[in-house]
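User: Okay, second chain of the day. Same drill as before: sequence in, structure tokens out.
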Amino acid sequence: MDQLGTRVLVTGASGFIGRCLCQKLTDQGFAVTAMLRRPQTGPWRHVLESDLARGEVDPRALDGVDTIFHLAGKAHTRAKNAIENAEYEAVHVHGTRSLLRAARQAGVRACVFLSSVKAMGEGGVEVWDESTPCSPQNTYGVTKLAAERVVLEEMALSCPVVLRPTLVYGVGSKGNLDLMIRAVRKGYFPAIAFPPNSRSMIHVQDVVQACLLAATHPAACGQVYILTDGGEYSTNEMLAWIHETVGKKPGPAVPYAALRVGAALGNMLERLGIHAPLNEDRLAKLAGSARYSSAKIRRELGFDPDWDLRRGIQEMVEGMMRQ
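Assistant: Same drill. Structure tokens below.
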């Protein structure tokens, strides 16, 4: 850890991944400064109050910082109007540019930017790696890719690194996997035979491991890495493991075609400004494929994930039972 220095800054520190990263850094003896929009307690030593989307970062606030872990971002949802599109631009692009401009003036050595595979596109049945041409399909992905270019080219520090995680899970996550587990526990999730699919995923603690490797390994500088746990999972497997772990049998059978009709109706409702529990985007995440390779970071940095999804589901269920 010699190259990491003693003082680090984490943006997005209060988020799901950010808190896990700050805890790991603090446990290892680093002086962690959390950049937050408003002060709150957490596993960090100092708080730098700043809203990246609405102001410029003062370079003096970064004096003594060696490494920035840039995790701040607007959550991935479908932008519904020009205002929401502008929010993605402000947070991901303007915010990253402001942060890196101040970091360059303060002499910060490294920036590890947590991007997303959505910067590449939506993925599918073909396995994508870092050589796959990027063609993002929504505002979230477009602005994440633009932020990557700020980090690697426009405002590059001496050691910039971009990480593109696949779907991140673990205790405290708020995505589809969490919703599925809660629905099965309550007996709300029907028995559905989803079409065959394969999805790449990664546990939050393995994302943290990758962040630390990216900040300390000389070979990482200037590179882009995709993060997966190396496995591929189908929705049917996920549901079987969830039912097994919570000790419940599947609910009443519902044909998959009914979900497609419900998703189409959900899209219609959301165009009218009415929230729907299911739409075509959510169904695609449940039933579609999104396959990625993490061979590059394994080969170059020695990345070796500790978690797989079956173990992660057990951990998430146990975490819910303690709530």
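The mean pLDDT is 91.

User: Thanks, on to the next one.
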